[in-house]
């Protein structure tokens, strides 16, 4: 069976409305992909940087998949949250990236979005109180089927560095 | 053990940049998965206590060598470097000034990494006050938690500086075992120019990237 290793880091995020942010992440893969070792989801620390405009998470990713079919190539999905001074969390962005198919190291920036406040009242609430609409089913981030119903606003970007190591793809005649 | 590959790492922890602190030293350790074995070199070390340069760079230079060879049968648990920077406070206590972490580069060759360094901060105002009173700041009991993907979700940190590390990476036997670590000659990755410049602060290595 062919194998895929994904080794890297969620480096940090920037250009979000506030710097005190953290990220929940997960790796989704199709049914032909079996997770052998490693964590496929997690949550980073909350960073409030004093130096730079990037909030650093430096969160390691290390997963090992056994692969039976190329369908369902893994995706990394990210949810960025803001932790405010009262300990409340608020969604700051959803985003996903496909794990790069070519072996080697990739520096990727994942652009994010979140549902927009629909009415003026919601906008005011979000401005003064925080909170606001979020996705009840975050799997929507990974599919293109039902996006057309959403109205969203554009948020910041998340920097990810991923190294991809493939094994035995050539023996099965797969070119990457 | 013909089935194993070797990763050999040389390099140095060059220096660090902390605008607010002086007289710093660092501890480093390599972390790796259970399939990995150290064949030569040190997996932990402590640097000297160094004072800042007097010029505008205001670097704390350590020039601390890293030299380790590891062998493994499985890339899972790829080695990562955890760096902890400590300094002395006004009362002569050791206080942590920053933690940082990075993977050993997967790519062959020479690499330069600028690790963001962060310190845990107190979760509540009361803890902040007692920390100020007793001079004992929050710190990790075991900094190895940084290299793990779990257990960090409840921590609040504040990033305050950078540590500069250079690596040279050599590998042996990986392609013989069927691993493809680098891109094939045909595959091409096109990265938009502005992405690279916006990430340039993160990765000194990218400055050497050629753009066409």
Automatic annotation (TrEMBL), chain A:
Source organism of the structure: Ladona fulva
Location within or outside the cell: Cytoplasm, Cytoskeleton, Cilium basal body
UniProt keywords, alphabetically: Cell projection, Cilium biogenesis/degradation, Cytoplasm, Cytoskeleton
Name of protein: B9 domain-containing protein 2
Matching InterPro entries: C2_B9-type_dom
Record GO cellular component, one term: MKS complex
Principal subcellular localization: cytoplasm
Similarity-based family: Belongs to the B9D family.
Pfam families: B9-C2
Gene Ontology BP annotations: cilium assembly
Automatic annotation (TrEMBL), chain B:
Subcellular location: Cytoplasm, Cytoskeleton, Cilium basal body
GO BP of this protein: cilium assembly
InterPro entries attached to this UniProt entry: C2_B9-type_dom
Alphabetical UniProt keywords: Cell projection, Cilium biogenesis/degradation, Cytoplasm, Cytoskeleton
PROSITE patterns: C2_B9
Cellular component aspect of the GO annotation: MKS complex
Predominant place of localization: cytoplasm
Highest taxon of the lineage: Eukaryota
Pfam family, one: B9-C2
PANTHER family: B9 DOMAIN-CONTAINING, B9 DOMAIN-CONTAINING PROTEIN 1
Family label: Belongs to the B9D family.
Protein known as: B9 domain-containing protein 1
Lineage per the UniProt record: Eukaryota, Metazoa, Ecdysozoa, Arthropoda, Hexapoda
């Amino acid at each position: 069976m062919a194998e895929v290793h994904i080794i890297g880091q969620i480096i940090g995020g920037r250009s979000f409305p506030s710097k005190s942010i953290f990220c929940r992440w997960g790796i989704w893969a199709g049914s032909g992909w079996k997770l052998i070792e490693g964590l496929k989801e997690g949550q980073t620390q909350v960073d409030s940087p004093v130096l730079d405009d990037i909030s650093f998470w430096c969160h390691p990713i290390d997963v090992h998949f056994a692969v039976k079919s190329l369908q369902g190539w893994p995706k990394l999905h990210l949810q960025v949250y803001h932790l405010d001074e009262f300990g409340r969390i608020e969604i700051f962005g959803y985003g996903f990236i496909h794990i790069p198919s070519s072996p080697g190291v990739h520096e990727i920036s994942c652009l994010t979005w979140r549902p927009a406040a629909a009415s003026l009242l919601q906008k005011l609430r979000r401005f003064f109180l925080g909170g606001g609409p979020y996705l009840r089913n975050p799997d929507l981030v990974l599919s293109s089927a039902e996006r057309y119903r959403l109205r969203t606003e554009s948020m910041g970007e998340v920097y990810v560095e991923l190294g991809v190591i493939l094994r035995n793809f050539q023996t099965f005649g797969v070119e990457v | 053990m013909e089935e194993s590959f070797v990763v050999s790492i040389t390099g140095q922890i060059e220096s660090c940049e902390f605008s607010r602190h002086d007289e710093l030293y660092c501890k480093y350790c390599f972390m790796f998965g259970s399939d990995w074995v150290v064949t030569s070199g040190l997996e932990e070390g402590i640097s000297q206590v160094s004072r800042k340069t007097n010029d505008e760079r205001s670097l704390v230079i350590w020039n601390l060598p890293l030299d380790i060879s590891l062998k493994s049968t499985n890339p899972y648990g790829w080695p990562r470097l955890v760096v902890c920077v400590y300094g002395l406070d006004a009362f002569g206590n050791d206080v942590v000034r920053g933690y940082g972490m990075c993977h050993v580069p997967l790519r062959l060759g020479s690499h330069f990494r600028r690790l963001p360094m962060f310190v845990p901060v107190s979760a509540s105002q009361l803890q902040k006050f007692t920390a100020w009173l007793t001079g004992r700041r929050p710190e990790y009991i075991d900094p190895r938690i940084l290299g793990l993907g779990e257990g960090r979700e409840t921590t609040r940190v504040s990033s305050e500086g950078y540590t500069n590390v250079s690596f040279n990476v050599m590998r042996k036997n990986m392609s013989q075992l069927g691993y493809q670590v680098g891109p094939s000659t045909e595959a091409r990755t096109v990265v938009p120019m502005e992405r690279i410049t916006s990430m340039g602060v993160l990765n000194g290595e990218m400055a050497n990237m050629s753009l066409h």
